[in-house]
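User: Quick sanity check before I run a bigger batch. Here is a single chain. Can you write out its predicted 3D structure?
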Amino acid sequence: MTRLSLLVLILLFLPARLPAQPIRIGSLGLSGPLLPLWIAQDRGLFAKQGLTSELITFQGGTQTIQALLSGGIGFAASSSDTGVNAKLRGADIVGLAEWVNSLPYMFVTTKEIDKGEKLKGKKIAISRFGGAAHYAVRMVLIKMGIDPEKDVQILQLGDESLRLSALRQGVVDATVLTPPANLTARNLGFRILTSLQEAGVKYSFDGIFVSRDYAAKNRETVIRFLKGFVEGIASMKRNRSESIATLKKWTRLNDQNALDETYRIFVEMIPAKPYGSEDGWRNLLEVLSATNPKAKQLEYNEAFDYTYLREADKSGFIDALYK
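Assistant: Done. Predicted structure follows.
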């Protein structure tokens, strides 16, 4: 056998390499739900799919979606409400996945309130009327059999730090907080009465968005991206210590208890297969319609297209990650 024929045989049996494809991914801030994205980037899971990825952090969902619309990034990991609001303003974007499908709020109360019925007649703090925190409070109260209009007083007080301060000062009896602020509240002696996830509340919270034109012209790249992303979710669920180290690196959070709590909450909340639901979609639209009545006219399939994720799923790729 000649050297040339031997080389040909070796090349024939080498595993096929995916052609390298550069992508730019934008994300909103540095919060716990983004952990699967950070894992996929840091552990080369996008590179494994033949993608040369760059991850860019923006200060909020609005800037992330703006970068997507300007062509500065190809994929946006953003809050669903920001993506849908852009859609309502005429942006031709679409959601590919919904990896947080409940509101990541904990319902925090004074120590004396150990069951729902004790909330009657109490004061509950929210950020603003019509916002996600307001909706979260209403949904939990309804689940507990409490009438949010008649049985409690809901006060508009501002962000989480202000609401926690009001709770500490005795101005209010309850509020909703996200990780790790809920841990701070618990350490101060307050009670975590329930969470939105425990209460069974579905909500379209965080999604992956692209322009429809980009997705149509780069179908294979989109599917590769989703494979890298869902492997990031699987890695998060299967590798606790490494995942917490990644969380610490990106958030620059040094409080180990806060890191552990953030990981615990989102590893349970983020599904292996990031599909959304009609219930979560309707709940999102109820919040958005408080400030934009046109929201209720938007159909689910206009805003999200799961055909790309289903293609990756039907191939058995996601199931194989958990075997």
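The CA atoms of residues 107 and 176 lie 5 Å apart.

User: Great, the batch can go ahead then.
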